[in-house]
Structure formats: structure tokens, C-alpha cells
Amino acid sequence: MPVRALWYDRAGLHLIDQRRLPVSKITRTYRRVEDVAESIRTMVVRGAPSIGVAAAYGMAIASSQKGWTPDRAAKLLGATRPTANDLFVGIEAVRSAWASGEDPLEAADRYRQQIVSECQAIGFAGAPLFAKRSNVLTHCNAGALATVEWGTALAPLRVAHDRGVDLFVWVDETRPLLQGSRLTAWELTQERIPHAVIVDNAAGYFMRKGDVDAVIVGADRIARNGDVANKVGTYEKAVVAHENGIPFYVAAPFSTFDPKMPTGAGIPVEERGEEEVRSMGSRRLTPSRSGVRNPAFDVTPAKYVSGFVTPLGVIPPSRVRSIRRPSRSPG
Ligand code: MRU
Fold first, then answer.
1. Are 51 and 146 in contact (CB under 8 A)?
2. Cα separations (Å) of 50 from 20, 42, 144, 202, 213?
3. Which residues in the chain land under pLDDT 50?
4. Which of 88, 155, 252, 268 would disulfide-bridge 150, Cβ 3.0–4.6 Å?
């Protein structure tokens, strides 16, 4: 795997600083749970499965710091970002182990390994969707950076590409933080998968022209009825794909499915700071007196999803409510 978003060793938790890509590849090392929480909040690490794994290691780090209890550390890490279900699954995997006297670091390692093998299984389950020459559109970054290794949306594309399928990927730039143009394009470049970055507003143009055969995205939280929270702009892509008869797939590990959430209406949508919209680097983009809103996610109704690519295969939205997280990882 050419990209690994994070790893842990005796020196601490190492994270690729995703804010700096593609200009520089810098790794930062964290040894305090407070700093791990800050790295998630400020998006040094991002993407639902990756923040779940980072938080799992944050819990393990807290267990060897003075003054921390499982519940206190879980509360701190759980307050960083509200939308991704994976964050809470990763925290709970270590909180329960720590609270019952098991080794928290072993629990965090196990959780990381489970996420990696689920994402690998997603790659093999989803690759047959792209068995022949395809032009595929994706939004945000659901690659290895977002999932530790492999990716969710990008995993089937990686496997299909390795099998020699002639793939071309349309990469939405993904305003305002540009996870598509900075991160997805970087990952595809590492693996020499042909692609083009487009502004978010161009996706409909290419879909209507017949230049897109399928759309595949990741997810931050999937409700029991199959509604999907993912990076803001996903909903529009799903509606335009539906209008043009293009299949729209959502790829996710079990940790993204929230059995306690009946529909997408209840999913908490993070609203981030104004400055992400007001400026880019040192360049101001809006008059300072204009109001700004910055929802980081939106919710796509289940009716627009052609299939969920899970570690156990591709399933329709009607089967999401029966998904159970296995106690052992597949693959
Ligand atoms: O705000 P981000 O960059 O953490 O948002 C990430 C996304 O929306 C991804 O599409 C999602 O987490 C799926 S990652 C496999």
C-alpha cells in the first residue's frame, strides 16, 4: 500500500498532516490525548475511518497518562467532530476494553487492523462493479488517507486498476478544504490511475454529456433506512446521477453504519468555521461583511443509492437495517 495515513509505535501516534498535502508530506507525532483530539478537530487527520482509528489510539495514549479515566478520555475525543459514526465506534472499542481491564493499546491495534481488513474487503467486493472500461466520478477523499489504508470509495477502483481495467476518475475538487483536488488526486497520482480534477459545479455537466458511467463515494454515517451523510455536495451529485440514469454507489466499513439512527434526519451535521469559506490561504474570497455558512456534510436520501459496497458484498438500501458488525473482521 503506497499510502498509510497513520501508524503507532513506541514514539507515539504518527499522522500524515493532511492539511499540508499535496505541497508537502509531513508526519507529526502525538503523545498526549489532548493533542490527538486537537489533531482530529483541526483535520490533521480526517475521513471517517481514519478519525475512528486515531481516536482509538488517543484512548490508548490516555490510558498511560496521569489523571485520565476511560469516560473522561472518551468525552474529550467524542467532542471533536460530530458526524462520523466511526469516531464513536473507535472510541468505544478502546473505552470498553480499558474499563474492563484489558490492554487499551492492544484494543486500538485490533481496531486498526479490523478497519484495514474491512476496507481491503470493500475493494474486492466492489471491483466487479468496474469490471470493464469505466469513467467514475468521486467526491471528497475516501481513499487510504481517509481510512488508514486502501480507502472505501477508492478501494474498488484500486483493485480494478490492478486487474488491468481501463479506468478514468473524475475528481470533484470538494470546496472548501479541497479534499478531492489535494488528497484524492494525490493518491491517484501515486498509483498512476488516470484522472482529472474538476470544480464541484462541473460534475453535472460531465454526467449529462455521458462522460460518467458511475459515481462512488464514501460515507460518514449511514442511518438504518439507508440515508447517507457524506461530504457536503454529495447529495447534489446523487440527484444529478439519478436524473441521468447513472448508478450511485456508497462504500463503507461496518463502523460507518449507525444502527441507532433511524433516518438521516437525526444525523448531526458539523458546521465548521467561517474562515474556511472566507479565504483561501492568505487570499480573502468574500467581503468581510457578508454572512457565511459552512456545513461540512449533507444527507443523501436512500432512494438515490444504487448499492452499498460493504466488506461482505454490495447490498441495496433495503438491506442496510439488517447489517450487523461482525465480531471478527472478514478477509
Ligand atoms: O471532513 P472530512 O474530510 O473528514 O470528510 C470526509 C468525508 O466526507 C469522506 O467522504 C468520508 O469520511 C468517507 S471516508 C472513507
1. no
2. 17, 14, 9, 29, 28
3. 329-331
4. 155
Distance between Cα 171 and ligand 1 center (Å): 14
> Does the Cβ of 120 fall within 6 Å of ligand 1?
no
d(CA 216, CA 305) in angstroms, rounded, equals: 10
Residue 65 is classified by DSSP as: S
The predicted structure's pLDDT at residue 330: 47
* Ligand 1 within 6 A of CB of 220: yes
| Other CB atoms within 10 Å distance of the CB of residue 5 | 25
Name the closest-CA residue to atom 2, ligand 1: 47
What CA–CA distance (Å, rounded) separates 217 from 238? 10
Nearest atom in ligand 1 to 119's CA: 15
**How large is the angle between the packed helices 70-78 and 85-99, nearest 10 degrees?**
170
**Taking the complete model, does pTM exceed 0.90, yes or no?**
yes
Tally of CB atoms within 10 A around 69: 13
**Residue 235: per-residue pLDDT:** 98
Task: Indicate if ligand 1 lies below 6 Å from the C-beta of 46.
Answer: yes
Asked if 189 and 202 touch (Cβ cutoff 8 Å), the reply is: no
The pLDDT score that the predictor gives to residue 203 is: 98
Question: Grid coordinates standing for 38?
Answer: 486537537
Predicted pLDDT of residue 328: 55
CA within 13 Å, CB half, 148 = 27
d(CA 66, CA 19): 30
> For residue 231, which atom of ligand 1 is closest to its CA?
8
**Which residue's C-alpha cell is 481510512?**
147
The grid coordinates of residue 19 equal: 492539511
Give the mutation target among 87, 120, 140 for probing the ligand 1 site: most ligand atoms within 8 A of CB. Answer: 140
Catalytic residues: 220
Query: In the beta sheet, which residues pair with residue 168?
Result: 135
The residue type found at 277 is V
Confidence (pLDDT) at 327: 67
- Position 131 scores a pLDDT of 87
Instruction: Compute the distance from residue 93 Cα to the ligand 1 centre, in Å.
Output: 21
**Ligand 1 site, residue 85, Cβ cutoff 6 A:** no
